[in-house]
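Morning F.,

Quick status update on the modeling queue. The single chain you submitted on Monday has been processed. Sequence for confirmation:
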Amino acid sequence: MTFFAGPMTSNRLRPLSFLADPLLLAFLPALILGAYWIGGERALLLSALGAPLIVAVRLALRPPGTLPPRDRVTGFLLEGGFDAALRDLYADTGGSGLRSACFALELGDLSDLRALHGEAAVDLALARSGERILSALREGDLVARLGDNRFAIALMPVHQLDLELCINLAGRLQAAVEEAIALDGCSIHLSCSIGFCLRSRAPRGDAGDWFDAATAALEEARHGGDSAIRAYSPDIQRSTRLRHDMQDEVLHALMNGQILAWFQPQVSTDTGHITGFEALARWQHPLRGMIAPDRFLPVLLETGQIERLGHMMLRHALVALRGWDRAGLNIARVGVNFTSRELRNPDLADRIAWELDRFDLAPDRLAVEIVETVASYAPDEVVIRNIARLAELGCAIDLDDFGTGHASIASIRRLAISRIKIDRSFVSRIDRDSGQRRLVAAILSMAQQLELETLAEGVETPGEHALLAQMGCDHVQGFGIGRPMPFEQTFDWIAAHERSIIAVPAIGNMAGPAPRGPDPFRAAPP
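Structure tokens below.
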């Protein structure tokens, strides 16, 4: 399978200029065989010697700079060559009755692959992906590589091409790219998002507007989740503008104090007393009210501002601890989430140590929360070093959303995890669903054998709370305990909660006592 290499000029090609196209070499065996069949051995000899000579001469006489540059990994055209070819294709399909479509593809997970396995692994994945893209296309379709992880495709003009055919092609491209790639004895998988635009549906303008429409469809696909496919429509362009407006608003909100840390309490299932809080980012918009984190956190990730949010969340958490201390409240610890991007910062551990010292707080007052996906695959050396440094410093290391990834026991031990937080998807309806109970019982049994603390997230009902306590879970958190609240409201909530605790018989632990020392999350008596 070959791909179109140069600008499309349709019937405007100069006489014999096709001889300068290296693609002709693919047809030389057929030409030579035909010559032999028609003219015998003399024709065979002439064609075998003459055809390559003609191609070589034509290539040598081609003016400098007319061969567009190519990507060194895939051999595809680069952006400049693609733009030139697309302009010709756009002109050839205007009012001619021929149809075409532009596709924009983006590979996901390349940054993680690069961090884990290096640049050579990324090159291998790109080369394999390029081969698979070609296998799904026809000869004459135009393919280019744009940037680190994007590809562009323009289909050769045909008379029959509609939305359904384009969707089918996008599905074939996606399935081909997402097949496993063998790497050093293991398999890696890349996600692939695709956006496309039919020539007949392109905004009025030029070839650039056509491809911009395909790119807008790709952006919509990316925001729809991994492995999504989207076709361009005017609504997509509007939603893209809204998303760009959202980016500006989020950055303005972050810089002007509209995004703040709110705090959700965590309590002991043994005593009922507060054992800590988790700091959670909340955006209080002056006009639209509370905006959910799943709307603005991806924007901060995309714009590279997530570390700025992390700095702010850490400071607010430490300020809260100092405020509770001054008020004579015994809050043992506050948890702060750290993204994989933050954990890759070589200065992270030193910065946290400096902040703790600046606020005159012991390191064990901070719980560093990392999501399970960080431990699911072999993290890079910087991540391992940062987590080890923080654990040595005395910070607790919480493994968040446990059960949703693929963290191994070896990775849990290697990363010095001190507490696992059972994801809410396992906790929901645990008092009514025997399957949920068995899953949570298995997690608690594993944690007990590894001498790890446990916390159940998303506890919403007294039944869930009581059963988790009976099963041996150490701590609970969720709307059934307390909703996230601004720092100023925590004082009244703490006072009300402590008043509500009455002496009642302890709920029995079906799992038996855990073989470990004192609960580090239980507040020491004043």
